[in-house]
Amino acid sequence: MVTKASGASRAATAGEAMAVVDARGLVAGWSEGARRLTGYTVDEVTGTPAAALVDGDAAAVWRTLLTYGDAVVDLRYRDGRRQKVAVRICPVRGAAGERRRFVVQATPDPIERGLGELAFAQASMSMSVFDTGQRYLRMNDWACKVMGQPEEEFRHQYFPDTVEDATHSRGFLRHLEIVVETGEPVRYESWTRSPSGRRMHAWTSEMWPVRDPSGELIGTALAAFDSSEQFAARQRLALLNEAAGSIGTKLDVVRTARELAELVVPRLADFASVDLLESVLQGEEPEMGPVAGGVRLHRAAHHSGTPGVPEAAIALGAADVYPPSSPPARALVTGEPVLTRTGDDSLDSWFAGHGARSAKLQEAAADHDLSLMAVPLVARGTTLGVAVLVRNLTPEHPDAFDQDDMSLAEELASRAAVCVDNARRYTRERTTALALQRSLLPKTVAGQAAVEFASRYLPALSQAGVGGDWFDVIPLSGTRVALVVGDVVGHGIHASVTMGRLRTAVWALADVDLPPDELLTHLDDLVEHLAAGDGTGDGEIGATCLYAVYDPVDRSCTIASAGHVPPVVVRPDGSVQVVEVAAGPMLGVGGLPFEARELELPEGSVLALYTDGLVEARDRDVDTGTAALCAALTGQVDSLERACDTVLKALLPDTPGDDVALLLARTRALDAEQVAVWNLTDDPALVANARKLATDQLTRWGLEEAAFVTELVVSELVTNAIRYGGAPIQLRLIRDRTLICEVSDASSTSPHLRRARQFDEGGRGLLLVAQLTDRWGSRPSGAGKTIWAEQALPPSL
Fold this sequence. Notes:
Layout: E1 2-3, E2 17-22, E3 27-30, H1 32-38, H2 42-45, H3 58-68, E4 70-76, E5 82-93, E6 99-108, H4 110-122, E7 126-131, E8 136-139, H5 141-147, H6 167-182, E9 186-193, E10 200-211, E11 217-226, H7 228-246, H8 253-264, E12 271-276, H9 278-281, E13 295-304, E14 319-322, H10 327-334, E15 338-341, H11 345-353, H12 355-364, E16 369-379, E17 382-393, H13 403-440, E18 451-458, E19 467-475, E20 481-491, H14 493-511, H15 516-532, E21 543-551, E22 556-562, E23 568-570, E24 576-578, E25 596-600, E26 606-610, H16 622-633, H17 640-651, E27 660-667, E28 675-680, H18 687-701, H19 707-725, E29 729-735, E30 738-745, H20 765-772, E31 775-780, E32 785-792
Antiparallel strand pairs: 1-4, 2-3, 2-6, 4-5, 5-6, 7-8, 7-11, 9-10, 10-11, 12-13, 12-17, 13-14, 15-16, 16-17, 18-27, 19-20, 20-21, 21-22, 22-25, 23-24, 23-26, 26-27, 28-29, 29-30, 30-32, 31-32
């Protein structure tokens, strides 16, 4: 583009670029100013067409120059740039007056150069130019305003000498040096205050190299702008992202409240408190109650940027009543956040009416105001409590809470409220399930001397909730005892209720005195019936169970398992053995048999029954856990209580992921002198002899006082065995905590009480036995049945 130069541009200025062009249009001379302007050296342009330096129609440019003597020309620079320059031509004439050469003078367009200067000086951001040694060369008006002094005070000053020695200043200097070292532009972001003020700002500085026309780096320019708003927006977004992972990490109401308070301080507030309704802390449905006299809240958490939390007017766990006009009470009632600050009547009157808060206010706000937000914790349309955020308004941080802060606080409070409500619901269900389960677990077992036992039950601390683990020690007839451990699949109320139903069923089946494998078969059928009538829609109940019966007379233990982990036996010599029991199917599968295994346990053996939560974990399989259990039990077991603690400490983490039930039972044995056995024939004449045998044995035991009742019991039971059962017949007396009389015969038909009519000759025998003894019953045996009766020993014994 070619335009006629203005008259103002006709005046030559010192230092302009000059070139000499001969009559052929070739460059014959080239000044240093021309080199600086275009970047071409004298050797590069001498002898070349001057038209090559013009971007556009060179002939039109030449005609304009010859006609007017000057023009504004688009000049092509060595680095490829295009720039308008004012060009003036002056002919050099020969002796005959002909024009033999032309002197061309050029300078950047003065109008555009003036605009650039004005733009630099009046830019709405801080702009500065440094030399390669990080010394100030130029500063615009905004930079001078930020730094608080005129440009003359900084020119040629080393940057570190003009600012405080701080991390952000050293970072700024280092980035200036990087531009010089690399020749590449960089960006530097900092959070600091300007030398001219006390308020903190976020600054974004763009730094780039400055080069002369030859390409040599001669300095660094920068433009810095206040990015506090963008910085705050990024901080709010980062806080929301962090809240997703840091609030509600555990199903614990108080911990969730604490996580909210710790998240917002100091990034959003200088102090934060979270107060909840008492019903929420207890896991119940929220009940605010009447608000006319104020709202009673409990302090669940508070946090401060100052150690010791000096702003807190009430202690953690304490309760306080908030008057209806106070910001927290208003937020609770309306379900909307309340934004206020000191100087507002509602806030000042609330503080003034509360002695502790008034004192804290005077102490904390002695030289500055406070900005306060009360944000309700609302989940599923129900208000659970309120979070109070306080910000100290100082010269460095003069900004009170605004609408953006309130929106952020609402979002954080909403997330926390959902987590608090989930934790509340979990607490309620866990408390109910745990109470139910503990009420169903055995506390003391009376009436058995076959084993000494100790137990532990640990509910899961995971979010899955309480499971359905259980154990039992059930006294059986003939001084025997049943040891039971089981585990219902799943967690929560349903698992605990199912556990209670199964435990009751086991007691009922144990009372019938079924062998372990038959008992599990009946229990399996029961689980199928329970699943069919469950009403939950899934129609499935899964459980494992291990049932063992120990007889201290012959020291035998019969064990059957329904998909349960095997028991472990610690022998009296300290050796440990895993009892290999056919696991069988889980309860509820149906249609598959269970197998029992019988083993002998010497007196003093310890039988360990447990659930899989003890030996199985995410980082450990059952075999590894069982080996660890054996290692923990190896050696002499002096105290069962200490052994339980040792096992739990060795195998469990601080927070078990599943319920754990552990039962340790040390076997006892009856001496041969405590048991008397006679094998009888089915001759009715031998009934009298059986009575005499029993009476003589009671005399040897010193139990003459029990002879009368025992004679009647022996007479009736042996007579029934001869009449209805048949050989082989066995009479056994056991002296333990009670006196037990047992008669076995070959019939599998169980006897039952019946009412004898007036003229009946029989039918009164079992009724007499039931009336004269404490307990009686029958149980199946391998070849028939056994009828037994227990009576208390005389008080003197």
